[in-house]
C-alpha cells in the first residue's frame, strides 16, 4: 500500500468512526435509488472513499474514460476541484467535468476533514455534432475507443436545469445529515477528552498534594497557631473574656499535645503567650506600668511550676487575671469618660450640641460614648442634655427679670413651643404656670 492509499485509508477510518460506514453507504444508496443517479464520497484530493457496490454503476461513458489510467486521474482532478469549490462556499457546486459531463458536489466539512459527495454524469442539452467533436478532443491521448465513447455520449441522460438544481439540493441535504451525525460524535469526543483532561489534572494535583502533604500540614499548623494567637490578642484587647478563654484552650491543646513531655519548652511557650496577652492588654487601654508588674509576677510563678498539668491550669488563671484587670481598668476609664461627657454638657448646654460634639470632647466614638453613658447613668446623652437645660430653665423662671421666651433661648431651646412641650412633659406643668407658682 503506497503513501496515498495509506492517507486515503486513514481519512476513511476517521470518517467512519464519526458517522459509521453503514450509515454512509445507506445514505448514498438511498439517494441513488430515489434519483437514479450515482453518488460517491470523495476526499479533498478527489480520491474516492465510498462508492457503494450495490448502488448505481457509472454510465458507459464514464466507465470507458476511467478505464484508462490518465482518464481516471483527470476524473480525480475534476472531483478535487469540485470539492474545493463546494467547501469554499459551503453549498452545492454544479460543474462540468474534464470530459464535458454535468456533475455536482455537496460539501462535507467535519473539523479538519474536507470532502464532498459527487453526483451526476448527465447532460443538460441534446448532444450536437460540435459536442461530439469536443469530446473527441477531450479524450485525445487516452487509450480508449473514441467511436464507442462518442456513441455512449449520445445516449447520456439529459436533465433540465431545474432537475439538476433539485438533485444538487437533495444531495446537499444528505451531506448535511452526514455532517450533523459527525458533529454530534465530535462534540461527544471533545466532552470526553475534556473530562479526561480534567481527571488527569486532578490526579496529578492529588499526587503533588500527597508529595507535599507533610510540609503543608506542618506549615498549616504553624499558620493556624499564629492565627489563633492573633485572634486571642484581638479578643483580649477588646475585653471579650469568654471568647478569649475558649481560644486559649485551643492554643493549649496544640501546645501541650506536641510538647507534653518537655516542661521547659512548655514554660517558654507560656512566657510567649504572656507577652502576647500583655501587649493586647496595653493596646486595650491598660497602664503599661501596671501590666509590667503583672508580668513580673507571672514569670516568678512560672519558674515555680513543676508539672505540665499545673502549668496548664496556671495559664488559664493568668488570662483570667489579665481580663479582670482590663475590665476593671475599662470601667474606671468609662466612668471618667462619662463624667467628662456630663461636665461638657453642663458647660455647653446653651449651644447646639450633637452626639458627635460630645464624643469628640471625650475622645471616644459616638457609638461607644452613647453606650457607656446609657449604662452608667441610665439615660441617653440627649436625655441628659434636655434634663440639664430644663433644670437651668427652672432656675431662670424663678427670676422675675426673665420671661418664658428668654428662658427658652438662654437654656438652649431654639423653639419656645418645643421648650414648652418638653418642660411640661418633665415637670407636669407649662413654663408659664411654673413661673406663676415660683414667684
TrEMBL record:
It comes from Desulfosporosinus orientis (strain ATCC 19365 / DSM 765 / NCIMB 8382 / VKM B-1628 / Singapore I) (Desulfotomaculum orientis). This is Response regulator containing CheY-like receiver domain and AraC-type DNA-binding domain. Residues 339-437 form the HTH araC/xylS-type domain. InterPro entries: Homeodomain-like_sf (IPR009057), HTH_AraC (IPR018060), HTH_AraC-typ_CS (IPR018062), PocR_dom (IPR018771), Tscrpt_reg_AraC-type_HTH (IPR020449). Keywords: DNA-binding, Transcription, Transcription regulation. The lineage of its organism: Bacteria, Bacillati, Bacillota, Clostridia, Eubacteriales. It comes from the Bacteria. SMART domains: HTH_ARAC (SM00342). One of its GO terms (molecular function) is sequence-specific DNA binding.
Amino acid at each position: 500500500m503506497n503513501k496515498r492509499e495509506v492517507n486515503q485509508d486513514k481519512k476513511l477510518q476517521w470518517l467512519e468512526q464519526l458517522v459509521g460506514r453503514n450509515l454512509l453507504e445507506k445514505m448514498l444508496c438511498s439517494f441513488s435509488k430515489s434519483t437514479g443517479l450515482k453518488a460517491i464520497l470523495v476526499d479533498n484530493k478527489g480520491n474516492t472513499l465510498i462508492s457503494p457496490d450495490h448502488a448505481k454503476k457509472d454510465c458507459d461513458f464514464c466507465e470507458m474514460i476511467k478505464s484508462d489510467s490518465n482518464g481516471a486521474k483527470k476524473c480525480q482532478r475534476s472531483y478535487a476541484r469540485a470539492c474545493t469549490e463546494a467547501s469554499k462556499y459551503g453549498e452545492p457546486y454544479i460543474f462540468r467535468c474534464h470530459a464535458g459531463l454535468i456533475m455536482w458536489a455537496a460539501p462535507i466539512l467535519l473539523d479538519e476533514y474536507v470532502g464532498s459527495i459527487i453526483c451526476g454524469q448527465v447532460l443538460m442539452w441534446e448532444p450536437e455534432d460540435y459536442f461530439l467533436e469536443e469530446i473527441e478532443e477531450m479524450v485525445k491521448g487516452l487509450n480508449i475507443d473514441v467511436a464507442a465513447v462518442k456513441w455512449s455520449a449520445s445516449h447520456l441522460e439529459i436533465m433540465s436545469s431545474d432537475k439538476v438544481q433539485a438533485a444538487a439540493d437533495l444531495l446537499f441535504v444528505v451531506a448535511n445529515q452526514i455532517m450533523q451525525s459527525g458533529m454530534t460524535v465530535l462534540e461527544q469526543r471533545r466532552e470526553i477528552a475534556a473530562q479526561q483532561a480534567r481527571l488527569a489534572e486532578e490526579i496529578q494535583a492529588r499526587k503533588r498534594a500527597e508529595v507535599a502533604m507533610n510540609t503543608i500540614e506542618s506549615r498549616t499548623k504553624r499558620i493556624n497557631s499564629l492565627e489563633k494567637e492573633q485572634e486571642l490578642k484581638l479578643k483580649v484587647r477588646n475585653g471579650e473574656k469568654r471568647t478569649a478563654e475558649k481560644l486559649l484552650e485551643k492554643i493549649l491543646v496544640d501546645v501541650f499535645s506536641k510538647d507534653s513531655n518537655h516542661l521547659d519548652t512548655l514554660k517558654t511557650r507560656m512566657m510567649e503567650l504572656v507577652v502576647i496577652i500583655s501587649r493586647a492588654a496595653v493596646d486595650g487601654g491598660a497602664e503599661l506600668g501596671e501590666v509590667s508588674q503583672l508580668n513580673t509576677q507571672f514569670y516568678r510563678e512560672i519558674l515555680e511550676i513543676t508539672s505540665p498539668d499545673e502549668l496548664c491550669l496556671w495559664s488559664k488563671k493568668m488570662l483570667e487575671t489579665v481580663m479582670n484587670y482590663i475590665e476593671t481598668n475599662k470601667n474606671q476609664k468609662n466612668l471618667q469618660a462619662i463624667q467628662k461627657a456630663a461636665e461638657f454638657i453642663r458647660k455647653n448646654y446653651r449651644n447646639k450640641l450633637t452626639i458627635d460634639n460630645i464624643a469628640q470632647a471625650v475622645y471616644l466614638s459616638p457609638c461607644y460614648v452613647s453606650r457607656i453613658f446609657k449604662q452608667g447613668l441610665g439615660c441617653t446623652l440627649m436625655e441628659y442634655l434636655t434634663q440639664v437645660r430644663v433644670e437651668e430653665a427652672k432656675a431662670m423662671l424663678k427670676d422675675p427679670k426673665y420671661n418664658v421666651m428668654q428662658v427658652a433661648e438662654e437654656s438652649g431651646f431654639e423653639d419656645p413651643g418645643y421648650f414648652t412641650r418638653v418642660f411640661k412633659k418633665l415637670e407636669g406643668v407649662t413654663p408659664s404656670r411654673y413661673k406663676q407658682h415660683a414667684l
